[in-house]
Amino acid sequence: MRGEASVLHLDLDAFFAAVEQRDKPSLRGKPVVVGGVGGRGVVSTASYEARVYGVRSAMSTREARARCPHAAFLSGRFHAYRDTSERVMRLLRDVSPLVEPLSLDEAFVDLARSDLDDLSVPSVTAFAERLRERVVEATGGLTASVGVGTSKFIAKVASDLDKPDGLVVVAPGTEQDLLRPMPVRVIPGVGPATAERLRRVGVHTVADLEQISEEEMVRLLGKASGHWLYSLARARDDRPVVAEREAKSVSVEGTYDTDLTDRRLMESLLTRQAGEVSGRLRKHGLSGRTVTIKVRLHDFTTLNRSTTLGSPTDSPATIARLARSLLADLDTSGGVRLLGVGVSGLADWVQEDLFGETAEEEVEELPEVEVPHHSRRTWAPGMDVVHTEMGRGWVWGSGRGVVTVRFETAETPAGPVRSYAMDDPELSPWRPPESTDETGSPPPA
Questions:
Q1: For 249-347, CATH number?
Q2: Domain 1-171 sits in which CATH superfamily?
Q3: Three-state secondary structure string covering the chain
Q4: I need a surface site. Which of 57, 79, 126, 287 has the fewest CB within 10 A?
Q5: Is 208 part of any known ligand binding site?
Q6: pLDDT of the chain, 445 residues: tens digit per residue
Q7: CATH architecture of 177-232
Q8: Statement: the pTM of the whole predicted model exceeds 0.85
Q9: Is residue 106 annotated as a catalytic residue, yes or no?
Q10: Which CATH class is domain 376-445?
Q11: Domain range summary for the chain, segments of one domain joined by +
Q12: Where is the active site (predicted)?
């Protein structure tokens, strides 16, 4: 923990939904939900107007529609989110050379490497206020919540205290006073299971946690977690802000419209996903030792199984073989709604076989199958389109051979709504220059 409040955490408020409201004037001030729009979709981000009705990230779209049926449910536009994120990250890197992005919408900044004359609380507070104003200007109106503290932990906690559009600077020496009344879930790594285990021994707040000895914490939670919670309960966090974060894993997964019950079909899907993971690994010059499969059953139970090799691999056949063997140990008779394959324990090299057997394994021939990937509509709600006469707009909805479009952009007032045949030659998807991927699969991270 530092002697001054020099770690800043910036979190863009309701990021995906805020970008949609910025670019779609008719949705400003109204509930917006971004994520999967189908019956099996999951909410990625909800605007604050939708959160009033109880809509939250990771909630099923079905439940979100039941809670807020009048919200705009949009499929998302990665190119718009990526462009906005890049503007913010450039702004942060102008402030300090040490910027650690955690995702598209949040990052840590090391103010000790900035051009600030001093790191006193008034100076840091004034600087953070100006930074928030610059974010609004750079993004065309998006707001950010900012926390500043003596460590990454404290800065992250502070940025959550006054959302949205807030600023909290935690003065050095006041960290434990801030933390003590808070529930233990505020500490990173304390999920529902750990919180329940602590509750059983009478621990509800950070103040309660502070009363437990390090030895008892290790006995309750294990060596790594015990030491970690013991330190953070006392606001001890020496993690540096790291400008370049290495990839930790590469994975591919798919959600399916109909529950899968055919084991051969699942094996074929895993083999295909293993090939995609291998391709991503090789594209970035990586390999990995641990292969993991993710299986979500019909009742939403999610299972993860993994196995670790003696040396890293990028072989699609090896990854597929291990993934299929992991699936063989699971009972999937009730049906599977999601399958995924991932590789972790990454390295930038592949171990040569000690006995010279480095030839690529022959991929098992599997029957041709129709892959029931989660359907993607030609005209997804929220996607950008352009009409030869009306200009640019976005898809309001589609079905029964008709697509309905509202014609407006971030630079125009709320525009008119028109309906067209889905195959109308004058209507086409719009993509920004140099954008080739509407879904925008990011590099592994």
A1: 3.30.1490.100
A2: Reverse transcriptase/Diguanylate cyclase domain (3.30.70.270)
A3: CCCCCCEEEEEECCHHHHHHHHHCHHHCCCCEEEECCCCCCEEEEECHHHHCCCCCCCCEHHHHHHHCCCCEEECCCHHHHHHHHHHHHHHHHHHCCCEEEEECCEEEEEHHHCCCCCCCHHHHHHHHHHHHHHHHHHHCCCCEEEEEECCHHHHHHHHCCCCCCCEEECCCCCHHHHHCCCEHHHCCCCCHHHHHHHHCCCCCEHHHHHCCCHHHHHHHHCHHHHHHHHHHCCCCCCCCCCCCCCCCEEEEEEEEEEEECCHHHHHHHHHHHHHHHHHHHHHCCCEEEEEEEEEEECCCCEEEEEEEEEEEECCHHHHHHHHHHHHHCCCCCCCEEEEEEEEEEEECCCCCCCCCCCCCCCCCCCCCCCCCECCCCCCCCCCEEEECCCEEEEEEEEECCEEEEECCCCCCCCCCEEEEECCCCCEEECCCCCCCCCCCCCCCC
A4: 126
A5: no
A6: 788 999 999 999 999 999 999 999 999 999 999 988 876 678 889 999 999 999 998 888 999 999 999 999 998 898 899 999 999 999 999 999 999 998 899 999 999 999 898 999 999 999 999 999 999 999 999 999 999 999 999 999 999 999 999 999 999 999 999 999 999 999 887 888 888 989 999 999 999 999 999 999 898 888 888 898 899 999 999 999 988 666 678 999 988 877 898 999 999 999 999 999 999 998 888 889 899 999 988 777 788 898 888 778 899 999 999 999 999 988 888 889 899 999 988 876 654 433 333 344 444 454 455 555 444 446 889 999 999 999 999 999 998 899 999 999 999 999 999 999 999 999 999 988 754 333 333 333 3
A7: Orthogonal Bundle (1.10)
A8: no
A9: yes
A10: mainly beta
A11: 1-171, 177-232, 249-347, 376-445
A12: 106
